[in-house]
Amino acid sequence: MASEQKAVFDLIGRRYDESFVERDDQLAEGAWLIEQLDRPARVLDLGVGSGLPTAKQLIDAGIDVVGTDESAVMLELAQAQAPGGSYLHRDMRDLSDLGEFDAAVAFFSLIMLPKADIPPLLSGVRELLRGPRLLQVSMVLGDFDRFPISFLGVPTEASAYPPDELRQVVTDAGFEITELREVAAEAEPNRIEVQIYLRARAL
Ligand SMILES: C[S@@+](CC[C@H](N)C(=O)[O-])C[C@H]1O[C@@H](n2cnc3c(N)ncnc32)[C@H](O)[C@@H]1O
Question: In this structure, which topology does domain 8-202 adopt according to CATH?
Answer without folding.
Answer: Rossmann fold (3.40.50)
